[in-house]
Amino acid sequence: MAQINGTGVRLRAFRADDAEALAAGFADPVSQRFLPQTPEPFTVAHAERYIAERVVSIFAEGGALYAIADPETDELLGGIGFDKVVPVRRQAEAGYWVGPWARRRGVATAALRALSRHALSHGLERLELLIGWDNPASQRVALAAGYTREGVRRGAQPGRDGAREDMLVYTRLAADTGDPAPRLLPDLPGGELTDGVVRLRPLGPDDTGFLAELLGLPDVVATSVPPVAPTPESIRRRCFWAAAHWLHGNRADLVIEDVATGEPAGDIGLYYDDPGTQQAMIGYSMLPAYRGKGFPTRAAQLLSLWVFAETDVARLIAGAVPSNVGSQRVLEKAGFHKEAYLRARLPGPDGTRHDDVQFVLLAEDLLAEGPRLDG
């Protein structure tokens, strides 16, 4: 088996003396979470069988399994390979893991680039990655290695509890350059936006309690689309899947924090469902204790400035039901202009429909008027 050299990594054959490090890597909680097919706990004995039997069987079936090693010390950093080869389609499914001692060093990205380049120049024409919705670290690796997210495979992953999980499908073709595709929604600079009074940060798994409280408020439910209280599972998915949506470029969910206390005060979201016309929408909600303090105006301005500076969005829209004068005032103070009155646009309870007052903000509006952070 030939070695494959990458930037800062070497892909080589597994050896018997890799067993202890392999066991430590597979026993790590992150590996156990995203590799549910591995035994729990994963012992050195399991690792020895993996090296002696699993690696051999994968090669016998037309696939490959490599150790990811440090090219200077030969230390085991992780593993990578492909299986589920379909010869008639010249495709296979790739996978990788990195031990906790080697993470956040670009190891997985370098290894995936090296393996993909090798495999796609030696007979394969399509490589797939199946990645969990709540595994943004692996999604970033795929994007950096030139893979494209192309869909969702429903119930593709059996979990340890017997339930099946949907998986995101990322692919790379032999004809692809391997260069990372530009992201529609880049990361926030320094991970947040702030004006010294409010802070916007990405929604995450730790926000389920806060979001359940916010989105369960009767007045928030009444202005939601549709006007139905979210289930605990939908709240969990929104928090755990937020990073995946952001990386895909169709949605950015943020928490509005009070800088003085560090407490969450509300949420604001950017919904980029129409990149063809470069139009996106914003929406926001606030906890009662933080209303009347100008927080949503500040949040809308911060988000708008970032959108026009860092993305290709040309039009930002937002809407409010006619009776929601407070929300309309927020948008006007944030620089949005009333543009349309859309009759019966929004679904209401029990089959009713609500009118929608729509506002728009253009980049030139901000340049002409400047930010107005007066609350």
From TrEMBL:
<protein>
    <submittedName>
        <fullName>GNAT N-acetyltransferase</fullName>
    </submittedName>
</protein>
<dbReference type="InterPro" id="IPR016181">
    <property type="entry name" value="Acyl_CoA_acyltransferase"/>
</dbReference>
<dbReference type="Pfam" id="PF13302">
    <property type="entry name" value="Acetyltransf_3"/>
</dbReference>
<dbReference type="InterPro" id="IPR051908">
    <property type="entry name" value="Ribosomal_N-acetyltransferase"/>
</dbReference>
<feature type="domain" description="N-acetyltransferase">
    <location>
        <begin position="9"/>
        <end position="175"/>
    </location>
</feature>
<feature type="domain" description="N-acetyltransferase">
    <location>
        <begin position="198"/>
        <end position="364"/>
    </location>
</feature>
<dbReference type="InterPro" id="IPR000182">
    <property type="entry name" value="GNAT_dom"/>
</dbReference>
